[in-house]
Design a protein that fits this description.
about 475 residues, alpha/beta, Amidase signature (AS) enzymes, 11-stranded mixed beta sheet, 11 strands, about 40% helix
Length: about 475
């Protein structure tokens, strides 16, 4: 008897279309896992009450001859994607009981294909964090070792996939929030080109950085989900027109490695596995060359000025007056203070304050303008390198998953977890994390991620190389 939760989307699609299994049977298998494991892992904040009804409707469509990649496939949703008529909180107390009034574009596309929407997953509050410890509803735990973090901010989505509670999941990536938890949970995570996927209905954190991404067990599954949700959207002026040409597949690739950048606090064991991955690419006939990216070392500092600045602007709408959590003060101004002080968690308040500071009179030029200039320099350097190489390779993270609570009182240490991922968001290029290698800590083999970044609309390059790296692994 086949284990339904072990199937890939491609395998499930064939069996569903042949009538060998039903969407109801497939969905029930994932629901069973979710109910057994969620109390420990805290991946789902809510499992929708109409999941089996959705699956029954998918089975009717399949019986009528319809076939779409996601028809009848159980999928988990990060809790910052709007689903009409459903609660959506962005894992924050300030929106604890807020109900969405419309569907995000990516949700509409999933519904049109007949995907089974399982529920909303836990995350760092308003996507601010790298460990999913900043949720107002408690931390999510890594399924490989529940004493460790799953990464963040899309930690709940990553755990749902890794723990076989969902076949695939949607997350958002602002500075690595899809790739980093994918790496720490041993799955695949793709951050598409900025503007290739609509942000309409995604709660904004950093508007020039946010992208909806895919998390899945395999590279092919991540590609299937990406192909479903991508495309121009009249509701999002930043989306790329569909006629823009995408980079086509090649027989061999040149991969660049910024060696000088890899000295930044990386675990020695993780570096060994990174080199092993490069060797595998060479053995498959691809060329690996050293490259120089002198401005890349400024990516983290640049990101943590631009991102909080955009956070402070986007969070202004949550005032306790128009919607969401409200707490009475002595007057209207104190209403704002009390509502935002009690409704927002510590990390959100920290970034709002930092963002307000760098945008304030007297500091705007010294910090924000400088960061924007640095952003342009980083983009120029990277795209100059892309004239010589097809992709840039780095580890996804500096180390495997760390213990829950280990870095929670050291925000700078947590920010450093983004060192290899933020550059792709700063310049808008696509990047993927695929599992490659493990390191043993406390007797547990913890997964590592290998990251590849490609030029704009170079997702095909990432999927091709990702498949090569994970061949005989996943």
């Amino acid at each position: 008897m086949i284990e339904l939760t072990a199937l890939t989307i491609q395998e499930a699609r064939k069996k569903l279309d042949k009538g060998e299994i039903t969407s109801v049977e497939l969905t029930e298998a994932f629901l069973k896992n979710a109910k057994e494991k969620n109390d420990t892992l805290n991946a789902f904040l809510e499992i929708f009450d109409d999941v089996l009804e959705q699956a029954k409707e998918a089975d009717k469509r399949i019986a009528n001859g319809e076939s779409y990649p996601l028809l009848g496939i159980p999928i988990a949703l990060k809790d910052n994607l709007l689903v009409q008529g459903r609660k959506v909180s962005s894992a924050s107390k300030i929106l604890e009981n807020y109900t969405a009034t419309y569907d995000a574009t990516v949700i509409t596309k999933c519904k049109e294909e007949g995907a089974v929407l399982l529920g909303r997953t836990n995350m760092d509050e308003f996507a601010m964090g790298t460990s999913t410890e900043n949720s107002a509803f408690g931390p999510t735990r890594n399924p490989i070792d529940p004493t460790r973090v799953p990464g963040g901010s899309s930690g709940g989505s990553a755990v749902a996939v890794a723990a076989k509670m969902a076949m695939c999941a949607l997350g958002s990536d602002t500075g690595g929030s899809v790739r980093q938890p994918a790496a720490l949970c041993g799955i695949v995570g793709i951050k598409p080109t900025y503007g290739s996927v609509s942000r309409y209905g995604l709660m904004a954190m950093g508007s020039s950085l946010d992208v909806v991404g895919s998390l899945a067990k395999t590279v092919d599954d991540a590609e299937i989900l990406f192909e479903t949700i991508r495309g121009w959207d009249k509701m999002d002026s930043t989306t790329i027109p569909n006629e823009r040409k995408r980079i086509e597949k090649k027989d061999t690739y040149v991969i660049g490695v910024p060696r000088d950048f890899l000295t930044t606090g990386i675990d020695p064991d993780a570096l060994v596995e990174f080199e092993n991955a490069l060797t595998k690419l060479k053995n498959e006939g691809h060329t690996v060359v050293d490259i120089e990216l002198p401005t890349l070392k400024y990516s983290l500092a640049t990101y943590y000025i631009i991102c909080p600045a955009e956070v402070s602007t986007n969070m202004a709408r949550f005032d306790g007056v128009r919607y969401g959590f409200h707490k009475d003060g002595v007057d209207r101004i104190d209403d704002y203070r009390q509502s935002r002080g009690a409704g927002f968690g510590k990390e959100v308040r920290r970034r709002i304050l930092l963002g307000t500071y760098v945008l304030s009179s007297g500091y705007y030029d010294a910090f924000y303008n400088k960061a924007m200039q640095a952003r342009d320099l980083i983009r120029k350097d990277v795209f100059e390198v892309f004239k010589k190489v097809d992709a840039i390779a780095t580890p996804t993270t500096t180390s495997p998953a760390f213990k829950i609570g280990e870095k929670s009182n050291d925000p700078l240490a947590l920010y450093l977890e983004d060192i290899f991922t933020v550059s792709a968001n700063i310049i808008g290029t696509p990047a993927i994390s695929v599992p490659f290698g493990t390191v043993v800590r406390d007797g547990v083999a913890l997964p590592l991620g290998f990251q590849l970044m490609a030029p704009d609309l170079g997702e095909t390059t990432l999927f091709t190389l990702g498949n090569i790296l994970t061949k005989n692994i996943l």
